[in-house]
Amino acid sequence: MNELPFVGAAIKSENLAGILDWIVENNRDLEIQDACLPGFLDSDWGFVSDRINKQLEGYMGRIGIHGQYDGIQFGTGDPLAREHTQKRISQSLDFASSINASTCVIHSPFQFFGGGHACHTPQLDLAFTLDRVSQTLEPLISLAEQRDCILVV
Q1: Surface-to-core class of residue 93, CB atoms within 10 Å of its CB (0-12 exposed, 13-18 middle, 19+ buried)
Q2: 23-54: per-residue pLDDT in tens?
Q3: Which of 45, 92, 143, 149 could pair with 35 in a Cys bridge, judged by C-beta atoms 3.0 to 4.6 Å apart?
Q4: What is the distance between the alpha carbons of residues 68 and 128, in angstroms, rounded to a whole number?
Q5: C-alpha angle 9/92/150, rounded to 5°?
Q6: What single-letter DSSP state applies at residue 53?
Q7: SS3 label, residue 111
């Protein structure tokens, strides 16, 4: 008989203690959502990752994080906006690495959080958008590979 996978959790780390036994007993998947909270990536979050690592000592399940999404524009042509996006996802990957996360969720460049789909017109066709997204993601993919972390769209 095949065993079905266990349901995991996506939570802020401050709530981990309340469900820690439930997570650890079956090595449930865990997504830590702190990196997408406003101000977190600019804070001194080392104590947060230390706390998570202590709580999850001996845990054998998969850990992921939810990367920053507010203000992120993967398909932008604006160099400063691209730089901002790359910085925030890079910081998200730093946090992911600090807790040995194997995945970092990023939002699709083709469907905006809380909004509609990206438009494609004869002037802004799919190839044009894909090129911009590729320019933004290229260095981040290399960084994720170095950290053994998968960017999940």
Answers
A1: buried
A2: 999 999 999 999 999 999 999 999 999 999 99
A3: 92
A4: 24
A5: 70
A6: H
A7: strand
Half-sphere exposure of 52 (CA within 13 A, CB side): 25
* Alpha carbons 92 and 105: distance in angstroms, whole number: 9
Give the type of residue at 119.
C
- Check if the beta carbon of residue 47 is closer than 8 Å to that of residue 54: no
Query: Is it the case that residue 66 has pLDDT exceeding 90?
Result: yes
Measured distance CA(33)–CA(45) in Å, rounded: 13
Q: Which residues contact 116 (CB under 8 A, 6 or more apart)?
A: none
Residues 6+ apart with CB under 8 A from 64: 29, 30, 31, 32, 96, 101, 102, 103, 104, 105, 152
Q: What is the pLDDT of residue 120?
A: 61
